[in-house]
Design a protein that fits this description.
Elements lengths: L1 H5 L10 E4 L5 H18 L3 E7 L6 H5 L1 H25 L4 E7 L2 H13 L3 E5 L1 E3 L2 E3 L2 H9 L3 E5 L2
Length: 154
C-alpha cells in the first residue's frame, strides 16, 4: 500500500503513433484516425498511417488480371495519400504513409511496427449487426503488438 501512497500521477505520453486504416471501412477507420491525429498533434509527435491491401479478398479472376490488381493498388495508394493530406491539414507535422499487401494484422505486427517503431498503435472496431466488434485483424494486432494498442469505437 505504501507504493500507492507514494505514487504521484504524471502525464503519460507516447512518442510515435501508428494508425491502421481499413481501406474498405471508413466508418471504423474515421474515429481511430481522428484519435491518432488529435494525440499526434497535441503531443507534437510523428504519426504513421498504414493500410494493407488484402489480396486474399480478391477472387481468382481479379488476382489473375494485372489491370484489376493494379487498379486496386492505385485506389489504396490514393486513399493513404488522402489520409496523409488530412493529417497534415489538421496540424500533424510529421506523417509517414505505409502501404503493404497481405493479411493486415500480420503485416502490421511483423513488418510495419518493427520499421516505424511506434509505442502506440490505434485501430478501429468494425460494425456488424449493429454492434461494434473487434475484427480478426485488429484482434491480432492487440494480441501480438509489442507496444500499447488502443481500439477506438465510433
Amino acid at each position: 500500500m505504501k507504493e500507492l501512497t507514494d505514487f504521484e500521477v504524471k502525464i503519460h505520453r507516447y512518442n510515435r503513433i501508428l494508425v491502421a486504416i481499413d481501406s474498405d471501412d471508413f466508418v471504423s477507420s474515421k474515429p481511430a484516425f481522428e484519435y491518432a491525429c488529435t494525440t499526434a498533434r497535441l503531443f507534437d509527435i510523428p504519426l504513421g498511417i498504414v493500410t494493407v491491401l488484402e489480396t486474399g479478398d480478391l477472387n481468382i479472376f481479379q488476382t489473375l488480371s494485372p489491370d484489376t490488381l493494379s487498379d486496386r493498388r492505385s485506389e489504396v495508394a490514393h486513399l493513404v495519400d488522402t489520409y496523409v493530406e488530412k493529417a497534415k491539414a489538421f496540424g500533424v507535422l510529421e506523417v509517414t504513409p505505409y502501404l503493404s499487401e497481405g493479411k493486415p494484422g500480420h503485416v502490421i505486427v511483423d513488418t510495419i511496427i518493427p520499421e516505424f517503431k511506434p509505442d502506440l498503435v490505434v485501430v478501429g472496431s468494425e460494425r456488424k449487426n449493429n454492434r461494434s466488434t473487434i475484427g480478426s485483424q485488429a484482434a491480432h494486432i492487440v494480441r501480438y503488438a509489442p507496444c500499447s494498442v488502443i481500439v477506438v469505437r465510433n
